[in-house]
Specification:
By secondary structure, this protein is of the alpha/beta class. It is about 35% helix and about 20% strand.
């Protein structure tokens, strides 16, 4: 990894803030900023975080839902456990056809919000990275359709590119409202953005 990149990252303000606050990743601020604006995670909610390692978004969601909520983190990598009994983490593969069923066995009821900050291993070949990101987002969306409660919310990372609009249209067919979100904590030069889908419809519109 280039030393200049590492130095830039360590000097970046959100990286410093996360370190000082003992947060597991700087990306926590992306979720905090998005939720402060749109309020899609509330007290007592049940939240599923897909691609959750190392656990920064779990830390944010825990504060948003409170001790009477529940947060489940899912990732291919093990996540360092949390002491609270209302937080669970499991090892799971978003591409596993049985993952939605597996997730539900750990939840007290259908979740209110599903998050996905999952990202592929970047190759540096833009067309490949963009396609892989859309594929991960689609897997997360499929899980959301299977387990999200009616009127629930879905918040997912995307890389901007020519495949994005088809994905957005697919999501739009199943939710009452969508918003494009670029948190301040996202690096300005990054093509990363988020799609917030609000209000899962009980039946998709024809």
């Amino acid at each position: 990894m280039p030393k200049a990149w590492i130095r830039e990252r360590k000097n970046e303000c959100y990286y410093k803030k996360a370190k000082a606050a003992n947060y597991r990743s700087r990306s926590i601020y992306k979720l905090i900023q998005a939720n402060e604006k749109y309020g899609f995670i509330q007290l007592r909610n049940i939240v599923v975080d897909l691609g959750a390692a190392p656990g920064g978004w779990i830390q944010a969601a825990r504060k948003m839902t409170g001790k009477h909520g529940f947060v489940l983190g899912v990732d291919l990598k093990p996540i360092e456990p949390f002491p609270q009994d209302y937080i669970r983490t499991i090892i799971g593969d978003l591409t596993d056809p049985n993952i939605a069923e597996q997730i539900m066995t750990f939840l007290p009821r259908k979740p209110d919000t599903i998050l996905s900050d999952a990202a592929p291993n970047v190759t540096g070949i833009w067309e490949v990275d963009h396609a892989r990101q859309i594929d991960l987002a689609t897997k997360a969306f499929d899980i959301a359709l299977q387990i999200l409660r009616p009127n629930g919310n879905f918040f997912v990372k995307l890389f901007q590119g020519d495949l994005m609009e088809d994905f957005v249209q697919l999501v739009k067919d199943h939710f009452t409202e969508i918003k494009y979100v670029k948190p301040e904590a996202s690096r300005a030069k990054s093509s990363e953005m988020y799609l917030l889908a609000i209000g899962l419809k009980t039946q998709p519109e024809e």
